Fold these 3 entries.
Entry 1:
Amino acid sequence: MVLIQGSTAGVATLKYSAGRSGFDERKKLVDKLKAEFSADWPTFDSAAQARVVAGLTSVADWIGSGEFFEKS
């Protein structure tokens, strides 16, 4: 599990932490990232917009998992 310990010049320093639930650690990581980048979860104006973003994400994941991008 990973916690953000601090940041220097906008770069987060990660530290391994044992003994906590994975969900709590992921939530802390997301909260720290949201604070670091002054951002929140995106909102969609319509279901169609959300479907388009989901489709683009799926295609990007499919392309990124292709053989061309595998490490040798």
Entry 2:
Amino acid sequence: MQFLRENGLVDTLKTLNQESGVTMNSLQDPAPLIDSIRQGKWDSVLGILSTIVLPPTALFDLHELLIVELVVQGDMDTARLVFRGSVCQTLRNQNERRYLKLENFISQASLGGSLGVESYFGVAAEERRGRVAQKVMQELRIAPNGRLLTLLGQAIQMQIQGDIVPADSVYDIFHGIVPEGSISAETVDVPITKCFKRRTLAAGAHVESAAFSANGAWLAVGLADGFIEILNPITGQRRLDLTYQQNESSMMVMEHAVIALSFNHDGSVLAVGTHGGEAAVWRTDTGSCISRFNLLHKDGVSVIKLARDGQTLLTAGYDGAIRLTGLKSGRIVKEFSSQHDSFVTDVAFNRDETLLYSCGADGKLNIFDMRRSSCIDTVLPFSTDRLSHGAIQKLIPCSATDNLIVCSRSGRALVVGPDGKTRQEFISKHNDVVTAAASPHQRYLYLVHEKGFISCIDTGSAIVTEIECTGENIGCVSHPLYNQLVSFSVDGSLRLWKPL
């Protein structure tokens, strides 16, 4: 309300007062009002009173003094106009005796009686003005200008100090995000080397899956006990500004371990897949469930993605099937004929979603035509690897081209074109890769090994650097906008990594 008044938005302020029932009785400087009362400048007093709200007792005293002085000055028309106003009508209902005294004073003056302020109040006009001014002063609240912007600035400063917002960056208050390209230190890909935050979950609990929203504002994790948490991407702690996360009874939860997560394009919706084959779609701001599917895949949902149109859900499972399901109808819209001899480990779209790629533990990379839902090619990019290590664990679409980074359990990674042909190859020193991630501009590729290593591969020079982390790794995800990696392991640890 102060902001509206300071910026001259009078009509908006009045509407807000009426609709909310909340009034404002604060002034930056009460001196002009108090001085005007003491000097009897009633036109100025009425002008200031129109911008604030005082309690009835103070208004009664003010209007009573105003009417008496107008009568004494001989301005009967104005006195009668003020007397017929809403304040005096309220006085009539609450204190009829006082109202009748004032009415009688006006009537006597109309008949030519010689009356004064002192004859009505029993004290001189200056003394009565002083008493009224003091009473009004007690009811006023003094507030400096610009409190809204000051409080917003203080809130952002507290978020920076608490590592909720990255320092030295532009911050979009409206969307609650750091806009892409606004972080000067992170616009260039830099390899992560340091674990700057570590969170350990309660005994017996661990993260099974994780996902960043496209704008980087949300980090979702799926737990082995079925709970889904939205975390602060900077601290790794549960976001308690989301009301539903303040109590476990109101949190997002599934019946089985959550092993697949995916946000829609703006982060407002989160899709969840479980080891029991069920899937659900949740609103991230309220924690309410939009859609739930009980058995999309009989052996568990290994991959889940929301299509760009926001109307369909793509899932793949341990049964080797890949399906496109309507969110509203719950019906299967398309089913991609399975070419896998084992479970599906990942799926990915090309940039315009005309092609769908799938990979599996059988080492196959399938390329589907989205419109026809038919397989147009199947390749075995790691056919020379031993069968146990030929499994493809992760697909990473290249942001600047239609190429695809294909990562195998053997520790090899290939850049594959839309025709299925290999363009480039990278090899790490270890096998047992469980998943992979890339830096924002894909200069660095991170292969996460089960036995406590992360291989950082410079895709420009092919140099491999090893990062050691304790525990048996389950997976990792990378921040879409700046250099940050989140890894999680069987021991319940959640680690946040960044450059030195």
Entry 3:
Amino acid sequence: MALNLMAGRTFNDITQYPVFPWIISDYTSETLDLTDHNIYRDLSKPVGALNEDRLAMLIERYNELDGFPEEERFLYGSHYSSPGVVLHYMLRQEPFTSMHIALQSGRFDCPDRLFFDVGGCWRSCLSSTSDVKELIPEFFTCPEIFLNTNRFPLGETQNKQPVDNVILPPWSNGSAHEFIRIQRLALESDYVSNNLHHWIDLIFGYKQRGPASSLAHNVFHYLSYEGSVDIDKITDEIQRKAIEGHIQNFGQTPSQLIAKEHPSRSRADDVFGLFSKSLGYDRLQCHTPSKQFGGHRSTEADGAVISLHAFGDTVFAIHSDLTICSYKL
């Protein structure tokens, strides 16, 4: 989130909404082993390059644009973050519901195009030449976006399947809260810690623009990039409105923050030094209560301390694996 905020992303503007990555690639298994690298998405590639066959088609189309100036050629006509993407995911929660209806001229979109299946959404992002969207923070924080608690009449698909709550992968056991819990654990996993810097390079870093972006197959429409056009210098009113409309509706790339390769994040169990600086270990007695959100036996705390709270002679620590520990002075 810190990078999103520094790059100008905000929850107050759906044209510049924070962007998070797809992390998990397995939406069919009954259970997930978060230590298995095969369940994760390749974070070194943009969504559009995850499917080699689709990428070959996009490269062929890119080469057919040889009549355009080099800076105006692009691989992806759509974007990984746009108002449409935000409203797609947030359909079931106001005020996004009303914004979606306004965008669709006073009604809900065709049920087959609504967000109703996480696995189906992932498969679309792997196969469609016009679908390269990433995720939003709510996929890691807000189970309500998957629940039709407002009982909106979303219709049914062409296969006569009612569109109601979002269909979740089997490993979430039908629980939106469990889905969020596993998403958060996956985001904090060793695999993601060791590879997230590649995704940061694509979205916020040196692979966002220039020769590095071409080599990484990470080239979007030129109007999506900050500073690509000076609106104030456009004298033709029709052209000006067309460009403004494109920028507002078809996605904006975050501000580029880093001009060189981002370092890898440290492993969760390598980032423990907080207590050694403030309290002596010989003064502490450690008790590890059951993990939050249920479903797991209590074990020793694993991972970095992400939050500290002191009450009287007791210090409470929240670890990155959501374990809460108390330390008596």
